[in-house]
Amino acid sequence: MTVRLESLATCFQGLIPAQLFTCSSDGIPNAAYLSHVEYVDPEHVALSFQFFNKSRRNIAENPNALVFVPDPDTGQGWSLRLKYMRSETEGPLFDRMALRIEAIASYCGLKGIFKLRAADIYHVLSVDALPEARASESARMTQSKLDAVFTVKALQDLSARIQRADSLETLVDSILEGLEESFGFKNSYILIPTDQEGVLVTMATRGYATGSVGAEVRYGEGIGGMVAEARKPIRISGLLRGMLYALAMHKAASEPHLTRLARQIPVPGLSNPESQLGVPLLVRGELVGVLCLESEVPYRFHEEDKASIELLGGYLAIAIQNMQWQERAADSPGEAVPPANTTETVAASPNPGNVDGSNGRESHDEHELVYYGGDECILVDGEYLIRGLPAKILWRLLSIREATGREEFTNRELRLDKSLNLPEWKDNLESRLLLLRRRLEQKCPAVRLTPRCRGRFAIEVACPVTLNAQP
């Protein structure tokens, strides 16, 4: 080979589909598009085997193939002459390729349908430049320098922002603000695990319309869910092309028992994403959260970006976890805490009255909060507010306030409240309160959780609020 295979890293990102050419033993050629060509080592690449039955039959008869891969930075095309070696259906290489394909499939509602069957390993016999669309190496180097964003100065600026944060809320906001102002990543969000196993929730966003905080995603769904499930970073370039490719291949398969999933993932997202990057925030193997970045710019996240953001993700995970521990440590065990009487039976009837004691007086600003105990879910005026542990916390606070008139509470009090059934360790209460506060700001600003000091807050109600408990 006159050109080193590893020097073509930008060609293996899938921004522009590659082309595979095979030939049967009797000389009949076949051409097909490839979703992904994976670099294996200086002498081998892997091709994704999915729906290419004709290509696969040809390879079984004649192991030689030709692949055209374009360079998205320069437009230069490269011809790879290959010889089939073997297929892998498990192992790190297969897992890496399958993860990327499943992320794209999940994004467009095809998870579990569009799957990698095998990673076919080929020996690279030669690498040759195609004659058209040639570009100089100096232009390639210039483009790479222009795209560099992970500078020492940018990392220092983000680190300074994080160190100035004095609460979990200011920390997560500072992280996303810093990613935009220091690195140029305008669209980002952070997911955190919920108290329900296998479910993540959006805690902070940047660059999206308001109202997306509290959106949930299950493990394996979308790029955030895929990252959480695999505990590995996922980088997708040319996302729309990948999605269109997935849909075309699904249609071509024409299997009658397979139908596209109708439900879309209710998480923040651009209408026309071209690049996505998801990074697990891990501390000693524990998933603290998932950081997701996306862009309308094709090939926005380069190979060096993935490595840098992965290292940054570990730092962000430690910062978030340390802040959670710091806020929990502020709940001094020696502090006097007003008891939460667990024998109170507040809002047991369908219409127990109003939180402000107005006994049902009319008000144009009045809100009805309905708590469905079976689903642990709260609706405000018929619209979804929140569910799970944050919903239980809000209902408990409003119930105590209605029964006793008390408005100020402490984090430690909630931890000791047996009715909430918080885990003894790693309850992430501060994260739940932050999520609840932001959901109230979006959907019911008349009810507010207002911090008073570290570990203490008040629930403030600005208008009549009716509590209605349902099974």
Written description of the protein model:
This protein is of the alpha+beta class and 471 residues long. It has 3 domains: 5-129, Roll (Pnp Oxidase, Chain A), CATH 2.30.110; 149-254 and 263-329, Beta-Lactamase (2-Layer Sandwich); 367-470, Arc Repressor Mutant, subunit A, CATH 1.10.10. It has helices at 53-61, 92-107, 137-147, 152-164, 168-181, 222-230, 239-253, 303-329, 389-404, 411-416, 429-443; strands at residues 18-23, 29-34, 37-41, 44-49, 64-70, 77-88, 118-129, 187-193, 199-206, 216-218, 234-237, 275-283, 286-295, 367-372, 377-380, 383-387, 408-410, 447-453, 456-461, 465-470. The strands form 4 sheets. A 7-stranded antiparallel β-sheet has the order 2-1-5-6-7-4-3. A hairpin with a 5-residue loop joins strand 1 and strand 2 (29-34). The chain is elongated and about 85 Å long. It starts with 17 loop residues before the first strand and ends with a strand. Mean pLDDT is 78; it is low at 133-147, 254-265 and 334-364.
Structure at a glance:
This protein has helices at 53-61, 92-107, 137-147, 152-164, 168-181, 222-230, 239-253, 303-329, 389-404, 411-416, 429-443; strands at 18-23, 29-34, 37-41, 44-49, 64-70, 77-88, 118-129, 187-193, 199-206, 216-218, 234-237, 275-283, 286-295, 367-372, 377-380, 383-387, 408-410, 447-453, 456-461, 465-470.
